[in-house]
Amino acid sequence: MDLSVLDYIRALFPLTPTNSSAYDSLNVRLEGADLKTVYVKCKVLPGLFESEYYVLVNGSSSAYVTQSNVKTKKKPEHGTEIDGQVLAYLIQEEKHRSLIELSGEAVVGGLRTWIPNEMLALA
């Protein structure tokens, strides 16, 4: 019996309302869909490690992200946040808002969040 990786994961971890978006994200990545990448305006703080930043998007979602995926004019100092842009996957686009997914470890909210299109920055 040949199980796909996604089927195997679903067998181990049954689909629930809590993890359904994780399955959607995993499914897109495993099927090799080309996801458009965009930069999203965010607030940036130092991360737990030298190689990462803590980013806050739209006041509702935050994550630890690799520094190479974040654009800033200067390095953030401990205890202060600065304006920046974080690389994200564009999952869905509507007239006035877009669903994006951050590439990192979620802290508050999830890796996916709806943002107003004005928060999309030119790459």
Give an overview of the whole structure.
The protein is of the alpha+beta class. It has two domains: 33 residues, no CATH class; 86 residues, no CATH class. 15% of the residues lie in helices and 45% in strands. It has two helices and nine strands; from the N terminus they run H-H-E-E-E-E-E-E-E-E-E. Strands 1, 2, 3, 4, 5, 6, 7, 8 and 9 form a nine-stranded antiparallel β-sheet that branches. A hairpin with a 3-residue loop joins strand 5 and strand 6. 23% of the residues are buried. The mean pLDDT is 81.
Itemize the secondary structure elements and their pairings.
Elements: H1 5-12, H2 20-30, E1 36-46, E2 52-57, E3 61-66, E4 70-72, E5 82-93, E6 97-102, E7 105-108, E8 112-116, E9 120-121
Antiparallel strand pairs: 1-2, 1-5, 1-9, 2-3, 3-7, 4-5, 5-6, 6-8
The value of Rg in angstroms is 16 Å
Number of domains: 2
Low-pLDDT residue spans: none
Give the overall silhouette: globular
Query: Level of helix content?
Result: 10-25%
The helix/strand order is HHEEEEEEEEE
CA-CA gap between termini:
45 Å
Largest sheet: 9 strands, antiparallel
**Strand content bin:** 35-45%
Mean pLDDT: 81
Work out the helix count.
2
Q: Given the helix and strand composition, which structural class is it?
A: alpha+beta
Q: How many beta strands in the DSSP annotation? A: 9
Task: List the keywords.
123 residues; single chain; 9-stranded antiparallel β-sheet; alpha+beta
